[in-house]
Design brief:
single chain; 244 residues; alpha/beta; Metallo-beta-lactamase, Chain A; seven-stranded mixed β-sheet; 7 helices; 23% helix; globular
């Protein structure tokens, strides 16, 4: 069984939704938006169980929860097992600068107290082992910033996460043969560069097989218009869990 726990489902500028973060099987965190640490606790998650954090890209709505999460690990949870943080180029430098900016006086102490392992990931369809499963990376198109999509490969299931992207070949490759797709849909009608809108999702749905499932996240409007083409689509909500 695959369990997806949505600690946040909103875009950077969102009308009432919390910022993006998805916990997979209580152990793998996809992004860590500003509201992630408190929302994981609202969902009664044991953050000590998180083995790895996969960052799609380095925008604040996807990463600004990291300093608070690491602070908790350092002074409250007192984490002892290694935490892997993986992401695009310069992941270690980015996370360290984030923590030192958030906590100029004790940031270095936090980084020393929490046993961290950093992995810089290439974007070109490489496959990596991760805590008894494999995952694959795909290059997404999100303006001038490097952005990765991820496909997690379990024994009988695959789960894909688009991160932030517009339509591109990397997204097409990620979607192919992936059973559960977590896709962003930042806007409904308006087209914003580097993001998907409702029309993009409609086109994607036409290409899918009946056994592929779609969950939409990174939503700007609080209420998303329901249209017939989306009858089989799940619109994620903050603090909700979905099992497959």
């Amino acid at each position: 069984m695959i369990k997806l726990s949505f600690a946040g489902t909103g875009a950077a500028i969102s009308q009432g939704r919390d910022w993006t973060s998805i916990l997979v099987n209580d152990r793998i965190l996809i992004d860590s938006g500003p509201t992630t640490p408190v929302n994981l606790k609202k969902m009664h998650k044991d953050i000590r169980k998180v083995d790895a954090i996969l960052l799609t890209h380095y925008h604040g709505d996807h990463t600004f929860g990291l300093p608070m999460l690491l602070c908790d690990y350092a002074f409250v949870t007192k984490r002892e097992s290694p935490l892997s943080i993986m992401g695009p180029k310069n992941v270690e430098e980015y996370v360290e600068s984030l923590v030192l900016t958030a906590f100029p006086d004790v940031g270095r102490m936090i980084l020393d107290l929490v046993p961290l392992r950093f992995f810089e990931l290439p974007a070109h369809g490489s496959t990596f082992p991760l805590h008894n499963l494999k995952f694959e990376t795909f290059p997404m198109c999100h303006g001038g910033i490097g952005c990765l999509g991820y496909k997690l490969i379990f024994d009988e299931e695959t789960v894909g996460f688009s991160g932030d992207t517009e339509m591109c070949q990397g997204l097409t490759s990620l979607i192919k043969d992936t059973k559960i797709l977590v896709l962003e849909m930042t806007t409904v009608g308006k087209r914003v560069p580097g993001h998907l809108n409702q029309e993009d999702i409609k086109e994607i749905l036409k290409t899918l097989s009946p056994n592929q499932k779609v969950i939409l996240t990174h939503l700007s409007p609080n209420e998303v218009p329901k249209i017939p083409e989306f009858d089989s689509v799940i619109f994620s909500e903050d603090l909700e869990e979905y099992a497959f």
